[in-house]
């Protein structure tokens, strides 16, 4: 039912209800009066019926007129106003309201029109800013694309669901090729933003790598995982998966670093064949030399001195040559193995992973017996776990058993892993077949044999009957132990920690460089240097600065190209707890300048600008304690985005960098790097400035005075 109809229905109901009420009151009145009074009223009504009827009709008409006026002056204009406003807000921002009604309605319409005009102008400015920002962003994207395209490694960044969010041309080239691509593969085999990485890399490989990373992160230890995959063109691709964590150390995605090792492996294979041929030939020559010695020994006609000299020379040279060949072969073998992504791993952890996969995939029960927990092995976890599952599957098929026992024993030369079961050992012929058999798990063919996997790891495998218990049999895998003293090249994790604790022990509001002329200037006219420091800890009196980052802000624009980014040698150890936050390792600081050499350059960079920081009192205190040793003093006026945020949003309790960024819609990248935090703080400051203006805070002095009245400004440490 239309609103007008509802209104008139209400009017009719009101009139009827009024008539009923009047009739009831009239009836009650009629019953209360005397008969003589009733007679008088009858006579009056009879003699003046026309006048009484006219008055009643006139009253009804007046009511209808009044209600009609209310309808057209208030109700209909209000409904129209709602519709007109919806048009402005939805489909046509240029639409303006033109209508008649009460003065209040007309004033409200004028106010809406004024707001729409300002909104349209603002939207036009925003569109222009977006266009400009897109232009600038496009330039930065082009620079990033040019840098990434020059990398020799393929890079793909994926979110936790495996969607590709960034990649370079090298990664695209490694996995995409139209040659031999079936139509049904075209969608899954493409590299692109938003596409799944599982369409180009076998899902089981990646799931295994991510599981391995997850296991490593459970103990708060950094973890990366490496594996080898095959592209559509049968290229061997070495992939390293590096996790990306948020400030809660929760997994948010991963980076894949990709390298084509096909040519390298081919060269090494050819070199391997050449080396083996060389070894055979040299060993044959040695055999000839030794045979000659035996002949000389058999026919002692030669003079004694000559005979002894010749014998010693040939024998000595043969031994030397044999040792040299063995050493050459050993060095080559180590070099060959270094080509594969072998990782240092506890043998027990490895076997627990095998047990987990065996239970999930093959319904096999595994028990441990006296594991040697301390030994480490160097393996490609995916291929070796695949080999173990393959062996267990073949054992189950061969023996019909599902229960097996794992045990670990070790010597200086090998780590021995035994798989034990009740029954007869496997025959030699069976092992020869297994060596050449393509490994299959869950009916999924793998282009590698058991022999190849063992060869890559320098492992030996054989089966035998247990001498101590005649009812048991074993398969023993001998693996070289890992060099536990070797320095491993482990990539730092991308961890985004929480903000440091609020620190206030520096007078931001009485800096010597604050002058009246600067104080009275509007915030939009000033030039700012937004800065941040990374330190060895959170005590300015004891800890040292290890990184300073800064960026300039001019006319509400962050000049990313005009930045200061410098590591600092602290001249002391960097605590591990500090490294977990900023990822700056001691070896990165070894050749960096001292704070005494860095601060003069930083002072020149911030000259004649207003300093801006988040929790700036901490950073300024770090600079202040270096005044005596460096003779560098920073007198610039200072603004703190933490304090400014508490001015703009006093009802909010959390004013950390992350919380402010979430409220203002700022995306933070490069968290807990000095330059990254400086840029993020700059973006927050640019967003806070117009909010301050709405509160009547326009000048530097007003911003500083408002900051000084906040709760955080009164905290002392």
Write a short abstract of this structure.
This protein has about 725 residues and is of the alpha+beta class. Helix content is about 50%, strand content about 20%.
Write up this protein.
51% of the residues lie in helices and 18% in strands. With 717 residues, the protein is α+β, with helices and mostly antiparallel strands. The strands form five sheets. Strands 1, 2, 3, 4, 5 and 15 form a six-stranded mixed sheet that branches. Strand 9 and strand 10 (415-422) form a beta hairpin. The longest helix is centred in the first third of the chain and has 47 residues, at 103-149. Mean pLDDT is 77; it is low at 178-188, 441-446, 484-491 and 493-498.
Question: Tags for this entry?
Answer:
5 domains, Beta-Lactamase, alpha+beta, single chain, 18% strand, 717 residues, 6-stranded mixed beta sheet, elongated
- Shape annotation: elongated
Report the major sheet.
6 strands, mixed
Cα-atom radius of gyration? 43 Å
State the domain count: 5
Helix count equals 22
* Spans of at least 5 consecutive residues with low confidence: 178-188, 441-446, 484-491, 493-498
CATH architecture of the largest domain: 2-Layer Sandwich
CATH superfamily of the largest domain: Ribonuclease H-like superfamily/Ribonuclease H
Give the fraction of residues assigned to helices: 40-55%
Q: What is the structural class? A: alpha+beta
Mean pLDDT: 77
């Amino acid at each position: 039912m239309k609103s007008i109809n509802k209104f008139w229905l209400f009017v009719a109901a009101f009139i009827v209800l009024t008539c009923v009420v009047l009739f009831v009151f009239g009836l009650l009145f009629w019953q209360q009066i005397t008969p003589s009074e009733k007679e008088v009223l009858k006579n009056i009504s009879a003699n003046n019926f026309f006048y009484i009827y006219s008055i009643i009709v006139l009253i009804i008409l007046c009511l209808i007129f009044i209600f009609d006026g209310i309808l057209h002056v208030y109700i209909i204009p209000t409904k129209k106003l709602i519709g007109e406003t919806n048009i402005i807000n939805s489909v046509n921002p240029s639409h303006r309201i033109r209508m008649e009604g009460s003065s209040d309605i007309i004033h409200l319409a004028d106010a809406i029109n004024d707001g729409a005009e300002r909104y349209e102008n603002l939207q036009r400015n925003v569109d222009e800013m977006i266009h400009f920002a897109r232009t600038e962003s496009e330039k930065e994207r082009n620079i990033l694309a040019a840098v990434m395209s020059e990398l020799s490694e393929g890079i793909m960044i994926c979110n936790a669901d495996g969607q590709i969010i960034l990649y370079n041309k090298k990664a695209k080239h490694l996995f995409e090729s139209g040659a031999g691509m079936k139509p049904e593969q075209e969608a899954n085999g493409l590299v692109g933003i938003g596409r799944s990485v599982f369409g180009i890399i076998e899902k089981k490989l990646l799931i295994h790598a991510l599981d391995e990373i997850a296991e490593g992160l459970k103990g708060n230890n950094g973890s990366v995982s490496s594996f080898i995959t095959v592209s559509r063109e049968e290229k061997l691709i070495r992939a390293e998966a590096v996790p990306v964590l948020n400030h809660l150390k929760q997994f948010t995605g991963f980076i894949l670093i990709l390298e084509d090792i096909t040519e390298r492996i081919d060269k090494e294979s050819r070199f391997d064949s050449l080396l083996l041929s060389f070894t055979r030939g040299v060993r044959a020559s040695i055999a000839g030399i030794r045979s000659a010695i035996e002949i000389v020994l058999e026919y002692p006609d030669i003079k004694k001195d000559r005979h002894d000299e010749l014998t010693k020379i040939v024998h000595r040279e043969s031994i030397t040559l044999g040792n040299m060949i063995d050493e050459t072969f050993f060095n080559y073998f180590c070099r060959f193995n270094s080509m594969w992504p072998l990782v240092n791993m506890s043998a027990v952890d490895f076997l627990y992973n095998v047990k987990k996969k065996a239970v999930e995939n093959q319904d096999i029960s595994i028990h441990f017996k006296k594991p040697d927990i301390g030994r480490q092995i160097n393996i490609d976890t995916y291929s070796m776990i695949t080999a173990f599952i393959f062996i267990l599957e073949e054992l189950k098929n061969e023996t019909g058993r599902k229960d097996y026992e794992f045990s670990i024993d070790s010597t200086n030369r090998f780590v021995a892993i035994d798989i034990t079961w009740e029954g007869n050992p496997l025959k030699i012929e069976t092992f020869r077949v297994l060596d050449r058999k393509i490994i299959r798990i869950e009916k999924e063919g793998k282009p590698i044999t058991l022999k190849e996997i063992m060869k890559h790891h320098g492992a030996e495998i054989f089966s035998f009957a247990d001498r101590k218990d005649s009812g048991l049999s074993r398969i023993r895998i001998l693996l070289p132990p890992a060099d536990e003293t070797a320095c491993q090249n482990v990539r730092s994790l991308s961890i985004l920690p929480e903000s440091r604790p609020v620190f206030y022990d520096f007078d931001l509001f009485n800096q010597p460089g604050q002058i009246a002329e600067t104080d009275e200037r509007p915030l939009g006219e000033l030039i700012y240097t937004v800065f941040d420091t990374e330190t060895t800890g959170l005590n300015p009196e004891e800890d040292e600065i290890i990184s300073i980052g800064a960026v300039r802000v001019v006319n509400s624009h962050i000049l990313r190209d005009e930045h200061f980014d410098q590591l600092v040698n602290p001249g002391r150890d960097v605590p591990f707890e500090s490294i977990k936050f900023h990822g700056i390792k001691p070896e990165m600081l070894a050749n960096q300048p001292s704070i005494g050499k860095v601060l003069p350059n930083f002072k020149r960079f911030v000259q004649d600008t207003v300093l801006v920081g988040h929790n700036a009192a901490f950073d300024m205190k770090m600079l202040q304690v270096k005044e005596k040793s460096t003779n560098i003093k920073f007198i610039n006026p200072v603004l703190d985005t933490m304090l400014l945020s508490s001015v703009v949003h006093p009802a909010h309790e959390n004013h950390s960098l992350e919380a402010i960024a979430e409220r203002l819609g700022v995306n933070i990248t490069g968290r807990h790097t000095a330059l990254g935090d400086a840029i993020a703080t700059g973006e927050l400051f640019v967003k806070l400035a117009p909010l301050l203006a709405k509160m009547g805070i326009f000048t530097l002095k007003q911003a500083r005075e408002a900051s000084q009245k906040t709760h955080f400004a009164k905290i002392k440490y």
